Amino acid sequence: MSDRAFDVVVVGSCMTDLVSQAPRLPKAGETIHGHKFFIGFGGKGANQCIQAARLGVKTAMICKVGKDFFGDNYIQNFKDNDVHTDFVWQTSDAATGAASITVNDAVPWEGENAIVIVAGANMRLGEEELQKALTAIRKAKVLVCQLEISSQTSLRALQMAHDNKVRTIFNPAPAIPDLDFGFYRVSDVFCCNESEAELLTGYSVNNVEDAHQAAQELLRRGCTAVIITLGPQGCVVLKAQDKTSTHVPSTAVKAVDTTGAGDSFIGALAFYLAHHPDMPLEEMARRANQVAAVSVQAVGTQTSFPFKRDLPADLF
Ligand code: ADP
């Protein structure tokens, strides 16, 4: 099975979101009654992989979950979404990554929240697992990484892909201030949002003009192309061979929940890079904007990500 070639391989995180809605956030030492509880599948790596799979490419996830109920459940979630799971390892040394979220409003995405994230098994993914998955990495069309696992593991995976001429997408999220410059050199597409661009460059990024400047700075650090996503304003794309960046606007939609919009965008970008490798990056970004715009019109993270069947045929 591991000799199979995949279009998109993601090396990244899985998180189980445990969400409680309550009239207010509890104080230290206090227990209060909430009115709703739900479990959601999250983690940037898994989100991006599942969005790419839903658009119709062969995907594999390289990650680690706990040998526990949440880990078993997550593996089933990958299977339900046609994501290959031979490289999803389970460990008894740590629990499946989890985010305990308390939201103090009837409308979760408008309320205040208190969140505890325990990365758990995600941090146990390392060189040993990457070596076991080397054939899949080598044969992939596109490899995608983020920063919710050990940054060493992400960098190593990107390097392995880069050395094998596999196109790479790196999403430096959550951003860290002194990101190793090695990440830029192994990124074919370095894709981040405004706040990540701000943290990485030290520039303030509040509008399209700022994003053009920040993209120039990120490109100088050695990547082949930069995309900065700008929420309802779409994104800015800058390629090494061009002097100026292009603003790719998004269509205006009524957003109900923007959680995971960036992951939907990156999953879609990975799909286009694998499925239409010769398409101009600006056109891939225009289409990824459209996919992500669909995701913000429904509630939840993976629950809001569209399938191929939900989208206009001209996106494919
Ligand atoms: P993140 O989720 O990482 O904060 P953004 O907010 O920049 O990322 O959103 C990623 C992409 O999702 C945008 O580039 C855009 O294509 C789409 N998007 C986000 N919010 C909206 C919105 N309100 N209307 C239309 N598209 C949106």
From TrEMBL:
<keyword id="KW-0808">Transferase</keyword>
<feature type="domain" description="Carbohydrate kinase PfkB">
    <location>
        <begin position="7"/>
        <end position="306"/>
    </location>
</feature>
<feature type="binding site">
    <location>
        <position position="257"/>
    </location>
    <ligand>
        <name>K(+)</name>
    </ligand>
</feature>
<feature type="binding site">
    <location>
        <begin position="262"/>
        <end position="263"/>
    </location>
    <ligand>
        <name>ATP</name>
    </ligand>
</feature>
<feature type="binding site">
    <location>
        <begin position="229"/>
        <end position="234"/>
    </location>
    <ligand>
        <name>ATP</name>
    </ligand>
</feature>
<feature type="binding site">
    <location>
        <position position="304"/>
    </location>
    <ligand>
        <name>K(+)</name>
    </ligand>
</feature>
<dbReference type="GO" id="GO:0005634">
    <property type="term" value="C:nucleus"/>
</dbReference>
<dbReference type="InterPro" id="IPR002139">
    <property type="entry name" value="Ribo/fructo_kinase"/>
</dbReference>
<protein>
    <recommendedName>
        <fullName>Ribokinase</fullName>
        <ecNumber>2.7.1.15</ecNumber>
    </recommendedName>
</protein>
<dbReference type="GO" id="GO:0005829">
    <property type="term" value="C:cytosol"/>
</dbReference>
<feature type="binding site">
    <location>
        <position position="259"/>
    </location>
    <ligand>
        <name>K(+)</name>
    </ligand>
</feature>
<feature type="binding site">
    <location>
        <position position="148"/>
    </location>
    <ligand>
        <name>substrate</name>
    </ligand>
</feature>
<keyword id="KW-0119">Carbohydrate metabolism</keyword>
<dbReference type="GO" id="GO:0046872">
    <property type="term" value="F:metal ion binding"/>
</dbReference>
<dbReference type="InterPro" id="IPR002173">
    <property type="entry name" value="Carboh/pur_kinase_PfkB_CS"/>
</dbReference>
<keyword id="KW-0479">Metal-binding</keyword>
<keyword id="KW-0547">Nucleotide-binding</keyword>
<feature type="binding site">
    <location>
        <position position="289"/>
    </location>
    <ligand>
        <name>ATP</name>
    </ligand>
</feature>
<dbReference type="GO" id="GO:0004747">
    <property type="term" value="F:ribokinase activity"/>
</dbReference>
<comment type="subunit">
    <text>Homodimer.</text>
</comment>
<feature type="binding site">
    <location>
        <position position="300"/>
    </location>
    <ligand>
        <name>K(+)</name>
    </ligand>
</feature>
<keyword id="KW-0418">Kinase</keyword>
<keyword id="KW-0460">Magnesium</keyword>
<comment type="similarity">
    <text>Belongs to the carbohydrate kinase PfkB family. Ribokinase subfamily.</text>
</comment>
<feature type="binding site">
    <location>
        <position position="295"/>
    </location>
    <ligand>
        <name>K(+)</name>
    </ligand>
</feature>
<dbReference type="InterPro" id="IPR011877">
    <property type="entry name" value="Ribokinase"/>
</dbReference>
<comment type="pathway">
    <text>Carbohydrate metabolism; D-ribose degradation; D-ribose 5-phosphate from beta-D-ribopyranose: step 2/2.</text>
</comment>
<keyword id="KW-0539">Nucleus</keyword>
<dbReference type="GO" id="GO:0006753">
    <property type="term" value="P:nucleoside phosphate metabolic process"/>
</dbReference>
<comment type="function">
    <text>Catalyzes the phosphorylation of ribose at O-5 in a reaction requiring ATP and magnesium. The resulting D-ribose-5-phosphate can then be used either for sythesis of nucleotides, histidine, and tryptophan, or as a component of the pentose phosphate pathway.</text>
</comment>
<keyword id="KW-0630">Potassium</keyword>
<keyword id="KW-0963">Cytoplasm</keyword>
<feature type="binding site">
    <location>
        <begin position="15"/>
        <end position="17"/>
    </location>
    <ligand>
        <name>substrate</name>
    </ligand>
</feature>
<feature type="binding site">
    <location>
        <position position="263"/>
    </location>
    <ligand>
        <name>substrate</name>
    </ligand>
</feature>
<feature type="active site" description="Proton acceptor">
    <location>
        <position position="263"/>
    </location>
</feature>
<dbReference type="GO" id="GO:0019303">
    <property type="term" value="P:D-ribose catabolic process"/>
</dbReference>
<dbReference type="GO" id="GO:0005524">
    <property type="term" value="F:ATP binding"/>
</dbReference>
<keyword id="KW-0067">ATP-binding</keyword>
<feature type="binding site">
    <location>
        <begin position="43"/>
        <end position="47"/>
    </location>
    <ligand>
        <name>substrate</name>
    </ligand>
</feature>
<comment type="similarity">
    <text>Belongs to the carbohydrate kinase pfkB family.</text>
</comment>
<dbReference type="InterPro" id="IPR029056">
    <property type="entry name" value="Ribokinase-like"/>
</dbReference>
<dbReference type="Pfam" id="PF00294">
    <property type="entry name" value="PfkB"/>
</dbReference>
